[in-house]
Amino acid sequence: MKTLPSYNPVPRQRLDRIVSALYSGSDEAIKGVYNQELSVVYSVLAMGELMSDKNPPYSPLQKRYAYYAKLAVTIDCVYVVCPISTSYATDRSYTLSQHACVATVEALLLRALYMLLNDDPGSAQKVWGNLGLIIRLAMSVSDAQPETN
Amino acid sequence: MGLNKDFVPVDPEFLTEESRQEFRAQLLSDLPAHAELVYLADLYYAQAVSNIHSGSNTNSLTTLQAWL
Fold first, then answer.
1. Nearest CB to B23 within list A22, A71, A116
2. Is the pTM value of this prediction over 0.80?
3. Which residue, A46, B26, B56, B64, could crosslink A66 as a Cys pair with Cβ 3.0–4.6 Å?
């Protein structure tokens, strides 16, 4: 079965780099893995488990992997509140946090892919809502870190 | 690998650094064996990506990909 890279937000080589660090046994290498990259790994595990014939679809293990993927990407704030000095009705605004990076976009895209594959009948609506965040985040990250994008 | 019911996501804005480290340690400790991870990753890249492509519910992702 042919895979199309254009539909693959995280290439295999990228995943292999993360996994190499995680399983290197080096504390320094593991410290260098972002929480969002952990989310990428767990999303791949969840979708791989969904395709596996070892367990029935939507098994507790698969749901656990998906849950961990969600948890890993929510540990760090993507946007943070900052005060602004204008005459607008609100005195608060949101800006990109230091934790937002390309890996955040990758992790959220994989979460969206997982939602398309899982058994939730409302997944299409959830994905559509999440895509708005992902596009906005991709724009913000691209503006904030142009040299890495 | 038992699911800890106290281990739930919260608004990250209110997480302490200590809590973040605890969550991260939990995530790291629950990673499967390397061989299992490679097996599931192989399945994902061989099947899930293709299914996503052939599925009917991909218009939004296609649009995003083109947009990015």
1. A71
2. no
3. A46
